[in-house]
Amino acid sequence: MNNQDQKDSRRDFLKKTTAMAALTISSPVLVKAGQHDEKIASFFEKMDLKIEVNGVAHQLSVEPRVTLLDLLREQLHLTGTKKGCDHGQCGACTVHVDGKRINSCLSLAVMNDGKKVTTIEGIADGDNLHPMQEAFINHDGFQCGYCTPGQIMSAIACVQEGHANSREEIQEFMSGNICRCGAYPHIVDAVMEVKKGGKSS
Amino acid sequence: MDKNYFFEDTITADEKRVDGVAKVTGAATFSAEHTIPGLTYAVFVCSTIARGTIKNMVLAKAKNAPGVIDIIYYLNCPVVPGYTSEIKEKNQRERVLNGLNVFADNIVYSNGQPIALVIADTWERAVYAASLVKVEYIEEKPETDFDNLMQKAEAPGWGGTYKRGDEDAYKKAEVMIENEYSIPAETHNPIEPHATVAVWEKNDKLVVYDKTQGPKSTQGDLALLFGLKRENIQVITEFVGGAFGCALRTWPHTPAACIAAKKIGRPVKLVLTREQMFTMVGYRPISWQKIGIGASRDGKLTGITHHAISNTSRYEQFSESIVDPSQNLHDCPNVNTSYKTLALDINTPIWMRGPGPATGCFALESALDELAYKLNMDPIELRLKNYAEVHPQNKLPWTSKHLKECYELGREKIGWHNRPSVPGTLKENGMLTGYGMGVGVFWAGRSSATARGTLYADGMFVLQSAISDMGPGTTTAMVSIAAEQMGLPPDKIRFELGNTDFPTGPTQGGSGSTTAVGTAVTLICEAMQVSLKEMAIESVPGFKNYKPEELDYKNGKVSAKTNSSTSISYTDIIKQSGKPELQVSKSTESFAQRDKYAMNSFSAHFVKLHVHPVTGVITLKKIVAVADCGRVISETTARSQMVGGAVGGIGMAMHEETLMDHHSGRYINANLADYHVPVNADIPAIDVLFVNKPDNIISPTGAKGIGEIALVGVAPAVANAVYNATGKRITRLPITPDKLI
């Protein structure tokens, strides 16, 4: 409760002070925003974010509470990255940030300023699927397909990390990605195939 | 992993799921993922008590929070036409059969019940505002403790009560056992959360993107609720990210999103949180069972008595056929069963993969195993000795039954000869080693379905039916059927679903999609070939003097039987006929010969496992899953279903338990870290074998159904293997290490 109250008063403080600042400074931006307290508050409560997603540079202004996952899905409309639990427990939201796999639901978007993000939409080369995507199709490493983007992003990283040296090791290092349809053995088959083919990136 | 199958005929082994590319590239669009202009975001406020009434809701702070558009709750909820007839008297706890009428009144039936909906311009703002809503309750003491309230259970008024021969005959048998079995609530937890996006295109025209196993069923429910004609509501469900039963009905969030969208005049998106997936969309009910089985000394069953109780909610009745397997899976002259439900202050359960038999077979197959040890008999021999050649209940023949083959195939594959006949006597690398098996059964049949097929002049054959595919691969199976029937390559066929504008198809559940929709597709293909022959005779030079029966069709061509050089492709026939396309719609009625045949799919599951002698940790070593599911239509997706069912069964046997704090009536593990589902490292090698003998009576596809029998029988196979390894009979799921030390 205390935290919420503090947030509220901080917001009120921002509204009041920026309104006064708008009147005295008369910056065109602030005057325009000053017509609505809300807009001013938003103006100050958003942060600049430079982020590269699948090779495309974005210059954004986002609320600091927005997760990387929600930024991708709701603002950049890259819905291939899935929300399964929003608590880092299912792995459906796995993406690569600067080449490492993370749960994008556990990372605030603004923590990724200046970073390179790769999502499931960014791993194929045009119509040529990534070898891991091909392998998942070849081994039927999914059923409903919802956890699949996270599985594939995790699987690519699993091979790159050097954690794909045996079925048992793959199983261990792919256990952060839940597949409720139960395609696990086929997922391991797919990772094994890519590992053997040496086509990890 | 071994991939050995027993096939009567050859099936394409390199077949791939037709929607595979969409699923591996992120292009598959699930219900929450459609881009809708002007979209708003809704977030539920949920009850924090399990029983009582809402005295007051303080909304001012939430209403003034940035971005908030509206807050809907029982005092300002617009009139929902469908509510009025069902709610008999306000503030009176009345069990109704259409579920919870969201925002209809101030009664709290369960913890986590949706009681208000906050709509804002962004999801983050809606979440924050929802946290500011203050609720005052008049709280009553909830009743949620199933184990301690069982004596209050009542017969639901239908199903479960059955008797043939003498009652409790097992008690007089030469050899008998008796045991009680408990299964906790299990929550489906598909990885895609339920989601609804509601768009009112006009005052009386509603478009809903909804996660549902039955688009037509959802359309019908919404039509009733909002007093609209069916055709004024379009439900779209292109992809379903798993469901396993939890999307079999319309839950409160779907009408809630529609109510909100109408009230604010903008599209609304409502996605459940993982916690809400535990409190709003059902679960496998908590159950208690007692079984008594008796046999003669040589192993012939003489009596089975099976009693079961499962829970429902306070506001509606929910029942399932838990005791049915005892009535008809094995041959026994004397059987009596009973079934009751217990109303608790918890949300309503719903069918979960293998509903009824998954629960019943855990008890029955565990009990048979126990009896086998007491008879000093091999558990497979005991089942063969009591093999039902005709349905024991009604003496009808089965449309097909190949359970014996399942036993034989599985016994061989698992290495059953290594099984110790005395429990706890086999060790491998210091680990107690055990083998177990369990039988699965589920109803087979065929419901009604309609589909439409259009053959275009460019060569594409497009099939449509308003069903959904939650993952089993219905789309792939339908393409496979059409490809075989039409002699066309699969890439020339597209099966479109998930849209109520398409012809009516069944709700996906009970392993019935392939037989029903597959029959409609088969009929379409047959009719299409007749039409193509007629069109060739009518408009293609060189065919004029032939009669239809003198023509053959294969590989996308119609040709003369006697002269193969007289041949023309389907597409050229359409082009030469001057028509843009050839369209055929076909319906199949539900299977009508229920008085002549019994209909079931069967499975047998075999498990080998290790138990650590000190810690009690179970390591699964191998699972063999054998299915008598009729003809296998799509090998790839059928195998995946069997593997997935085994994984689900492992969850049921060893991991899953939705825990409740009975003081508050609140789930205490409503998240995927504390509610354990199997992860990759939990899963052993799984070998799948199909008997693959067609059942041509149920449907021309030859199929019976797979989805349910893939799971039914797995849990008892694990429990029986645990007993074989340790000598400990675990009758309360899940089998966790604490129960073995």
What does the model show?
- The N terminus of chain A is likely disordered.
- In chain A, a hairpin with a 2-residue loop joins strand 1 and strand 2.
- The longest helix of chain A has 24 residues.
- Chain A has 3 domains: 43 residues; 76 residues, Ubiquitin-like (UB roll), CATH 3.10.20; 67 residues, Orthogonal Bundle (DNA polymerase, domain 1), CATH 1.10.150.120.
- By secondary structure, chain A is of the alpha+beta class.
- Chain A is elongated.
- Chain B has 3 domains: 184 residues, Aldehyde Oxidoreductase, domain 4 (2-Layer Sandwich); 304 residues, Aldehyde oxidase/xanthine dehydrogenase, molybdopterin binding domain (Aldehyde Oxidoreductase, domain 4), CATH 3.30.365; 143 residues, Aldehyde oxidase/xanthine dehydrogenase, molybdopterin binding domain (Aldehyde Oxidoreductase, domain 4, 2-Layer Sandwich), CATH 3.30.365.
- The longest helix of chain B has 27 residues.
- Chain B has 17 helices and 29 strands.
- Helices cover 25% and strands 25% of the residues of chain B.
- In chain B, helix 10 runs parallel beside helix 17.
- In chain B, a hairpin with a 2-residue loop joins strand 9 and strand 10.
- Chain B is of the alpha+beta class.
- The chains are: A alpha+beta (201), B alpha+beta (741).
- At the A-B interface, helix 3, helix 4, helix 5, helix 6 and helix 7 of A face helix 1, helix 4 and helix 16 of B.
